[in-house]
Amino acid sequence: QQQVKQSPQSLIVQKGGISIINCAYENTAFDYFPWYQQFPGKGPALLIAIRPDVSEKKEGRFTISFNKSAKQFSLHIMDSQPGDSATYFCAASLGAGKLIFGTGTRLQVFP
Amino acid sequence: EAGVAQSPRYKIIEKRQSVAFWCNPISGHATLYWYQQILGQGPKLLIQFQNNGVVDDSQLPKDRFSAERLKGVDSTLKIQPAKLEDSAVYLCASSLVAATAYEQYFGPGTRLTVT
Prior knowledge:
The structure holds two protein chains of two kinds.
Chain A: E1 4-7, E2 10-14, E3 19-25, E4 33-38, E5 45-50, E6 56-59, E7 62-67, E8 72-77, E9 86-93, E10 99-101, E11 105-110
Parallel strand pairs in A: 2-11
Antiparallel strand pairs in A: 1-3, 3-8, 4-5, 4-9, 6-7, 7-8, 9-10, 9-11
Chain B: E1 5-7, E2 10-13, E3 19-24, E4 31-37, E5 44-50, E6 53-56, E7 65-68, E8 75-79, E9 88-95, E10 105-106, E11 110-114
Parallel strand pairs in B: 2-11
Antiparallel strand pairs in B: 1-3, 3-8, 4-5, 4-9, 5-6, 7-8, 9-10, 9-11
């Protein structure tokens, strides 16, 4: 199975709160799990990525948690800000540039 | 460093007409991708080029879609004839080296509306 299942479809968070987006996969051949951020009218931009042999990766306010046995990974946005309002896509890489994207989560952060 | 350029940004055509999209990747990026993003969904890979050769076109509807990358730089994606279900944003992306090919740089996309 080459699908990546993403939830929730939309998320509303207060400024300063924690945003959590979850993804699940089946194919154990995936070699990287990136997260992309997309603002309206723009193309997706790489936010952070993790390898399957690492359980957590943190970059600033963004953290990926990875559970290899459960085939699940999640993005945590700490201290969420209105500027974080965007659509977030998890993805899985099959190597050589082949990315399978999730369906996206629309995040709205209210002041 | 200039980003991935795409044109046009918007296009409205009637069904059965043809349309072409243009992409100029980041300088030095050998790999170029075309994605289709239907409203409310994630991008779906249509075709991947390595220099001017096709690496993967397994999800390209070849009866109506075609793409080329002459001289290993710019690329064009064509749809002929267009169907209503082709309404989507067409994204072009590029990446530098195979080892970090999950790191792709996307252009702003072309929003196609087929009426």
